[in-house]
Design brief:
Chain lengths: ~280, ~220
């Protein structure tokens, strides 16, 4: 059980970043922390990873193996993805051959484009973020902390990320991630908290039970579906389906924006209708 | 710990930021001791001063080559930030040991001297003293303590000048004075050893201070 008791934080210069935060996370939970930029999300995550100390209050119950994925991973290293991850695997106590094998497996799963052996600084932002995610998984984490994971990763890797989050939680681990969009938090997390100017509050379930719209989209045959970041469209709750046919659940207010985006990218609308209250 | 040292060493080597201070050291040692046929203590004193400046530069380069986000990942992977800092210090010390060998041997190759065991011992003592003090200042002026590069540079230059120029300030200024006036290495081995001990203590204190400041500021 990871526990924050009356945690407040301020940096040497500046005002309070977190105020009197109480939070308890039992094993197997996936917790989302939503909030605007500068609301204190990243600071909260740094406290969970013991990268930072609270000014007052107490953080306890951190497990031994923590995986931390920062919100930006500047790819300025001249080491290759393979070398970098092998080093970090060894730092985590793996043997060289064990680290190489694990790195290979993770980079294949995350579909790293641009070469395992090319320097990190030559990778695109999305691919560098895959390396950042891979390093957190070299040894199965008991606590996985992800800072804005959905915005850094390419949309094509979102499915893998969701699966990884579910696996960590499934094996009894804790997952905490942040996002500035509440819609995405609700889909992947068992609990959502909202942080606003340093104050943390559990999100009321009522707001999640709004009536929603289900949009089924199809790609005209023979064309490769374009890569659209659906979760970047305001109000999108869930995207499911295979490559050519996808189903999007979206809040009623967001449905027009989804349709506009779909048509712009050449999707064809198969059906559209209201659905019962979205359960999460 | 070995894995952390390997990683810190690999990032430094790949970044090539070590090149400028290393080349500067080689140049100073080479130029100042070529065709030199006088007593060795002043030569080694000068080499120690050069290593002092280069160790400061090298340490700052070594620590700032890792971006804060990368360092955060390394700290979480290693479990403790103190181990990550220790790995950086170890890499700095290893680099300076290599430079010490260069700084002791190169003057003998480019000059004409009669060499005894006491000369070699003095060379090692003097240059390691410079290395310890330089790494200490480098740590205190690294991004871990001073975030802004401009201030860090001013602080580093200021501290280096103070250590070199303030009369009677151990270990660097005293070392330069002691070696400048000595003709036989054996005469100053004792004082030089004392200064090396002071340098080592300064390095340990600077490492602890750096660790304290980083953990309490973040």
């Amino acid at each position: 059980m990871l526990r924050l008791e009356a945690v407040s934080k301020r940096y040497v210069r500046g005002g309070w970043v977190l105020r009197n935060v109480d939070l308890e996370i039992p094993g197997g939970e996936v917790v989302a922390i939503a909030g605007a930029n500068g609301s204190g999300k990243s600071t909260l995550l740094r406290l969970l990873c013991a990268l930072s100390r609270p000014t007052s209050g107490r953080v306890s119950g951190q497990p031994e193996v923590i995986g931390y994925v920062p919100d930006h991973f500047p790819p300025n290293e001249r080491l290759s993805a393979m070398e970098y991850l092998t080093h970090l695997g060894r730092i985590r106590g793996l043997s060289t051959s064990g680290a190489v094998a694990r790195t290979d497996q993770l980079l294949d799963r995350l579909a790293l484009v641009g070469g395992k052996r090319s320097q990190l600084r030559t990778l695109s932002k999305g691919n560098a973020q895959k390396v950042a995610l891979a390093q957190a998984l070299l040894v199965a984490p008991q606590l996985l902390v992800l800072d804005e994971p959905w915005s850094g990763l390419d949309a094509s890797a979102h499915g893998t990320l969701a699966a990884i989050i579910a696996e960590v939680a499934g094996s009894g681990g804790l997952v905490v991630f942040t996002d500035h969009r509440e819609s995405i938090s609700g889909v992947h997390a068992s609990h959502t908290y909202v942080i606003d100017a340093g104050w943390l509050s559990r999100r009321a379930m009522v707001t999640a039970r709004e009536p929603a719209t289900e949009v089924v989209l199809m790609q005209p045959s023979g064309r490769r579906p374009p890569d659209v970041d659906w979760y970047g469209v305001a109000g999108v709750l869930e995207v499911t389906g295979r490559a050519e046919t996808i189903t999007i659940r979206v809040t009623r207010e967001g449905s027009d924006a989804v349709l506009r985006t779909a048509l712009e990218h050449g999707w064809s609308v198969t059906s559209l209708g209201p659905i019962a209250e979205c359960t999460r | 710990m070995i894995a952390l040292v390997r990683y810190a060493g690999a990032t430094m080597l790949h970044s090539q930021r070590y090149l400028a201070p290393v080349l500067l050291f080689m140049a100073v040692v080479g130029v100042s001791s070529s065709n030199d046929s006088g007593p060795l203590p002043p030569t080694y004193g000068l080499c120690a001063g050069a290593l002092f400046v280069c160790a400061t530069w090298l340490t700052i380069a070594l620590i700032s080559v890792e971006d804060p986000a990368h360092r955060a990942i390394t700290v979480v992977s290693a479990g403790r930030s103190s181990r990550v800092l220790l790995a950086s210090v170890v890499v700095a010390v290893i680099s300076c040991l290599i430079l010490t060998v260069v700084g002791v041997v190169l003057p003998l190759l480019v000059g004409t001297h009669t060499v005894g065991a006491a000369d070699l011992a003095l060379g090692v003592e003097a240059e390691l003293t410079g290395a310890c003090a330089g790494i200490a200042i480098g740590l205190l002026c690294s991004r871990l303590v001073i975030r802004r590069r401009g201030y860090a540079l001013i602080a580093a230059v200021g501290l280096v000048l103070v250590a070199l120029l303030v009369r009677g300030l151990p270990p660097i200024n005293v070392l330069l004075r002691v070696t400048a006036n000595a003709t036989k290495s054996a005469d100053v081995l004792g004082p030089a050893f004392g200064l090396l001990a002071i340098g080592a203590v300064i390095l340990v204190v600077a490492s602890l201070a750096t660790q304290f400041i980083t953990t309490h500021r973040d």
